[in-house]
Amino acid sequence: MGTSRWRVYGMVVALSAVVLTAGCAELDQVKAHNLQLDGELKAAQGRIAQLETERAQLEATIGERQDDLKATRLEVGLWKDKYETLEAGVKGLGATAGISPELEAELRRIALLDPNIRVKQTQEGFVVEVGSDILFDSGKTDLKPEGVTTIKSIADVIKKVGADEVLRIDGHTDNVPIKRSGWKDNWHLSAMRARTVLEALATEGIAPERMYLSGFAFYRPQAPNDTPEGRRQNRRVEILIVPKMTLSPMTSE
Question: With a threshold of 0.70, does the pTM exceed it?
Fold first, then answer.
């Protein structure tokens, strides 16, 4: 009887040890799982904080963009007012806002085909520019053959799609003093070259009463005159094309 009691007692102790061992293992697993969850929670909290920071930055950026947009709209409004004022002033002088789109398009087209021709829009009007080196020999005012061809191509376009625009032919030189060519100075040379181009345009059928000329010498450079390339760019003839004015150099009051 006593032996059986101790046997039962031993079995209970052994069973308790097994249960205790199993419980400890399960508890370790729970602790490990809790640690994992704590890590994931901290990572999620860090991500939330990062997103909050990014949201704040985006909101600040959106605010800045909205301010920029307001400023841009205000500036556009101011420029629109200036344009409308300018347009009204131009109409008050009896002119349209610019040359016809057809004429401008054709002049831009021949400029793409001929490297000797350049076009640009200026405050004075639409300009067709031809380098003097293709038009004239150094110190000369007679058109070279290739210059005649270039001027003819410009005249053909103006005759084909132009209306009654006014043409001002401007002569420009570099700042090299006149020494051996026989001209009094660069004023004289620039004016005579402008006259030659005007006469060539008239020969090609442009009405003389639509044209007048100016000689600017070297006082309107478009590049520094201290390099050969700069001086080459400054030697040029420009044909300024503007809509016919109610009053122009060719008409009387």
Answer: no
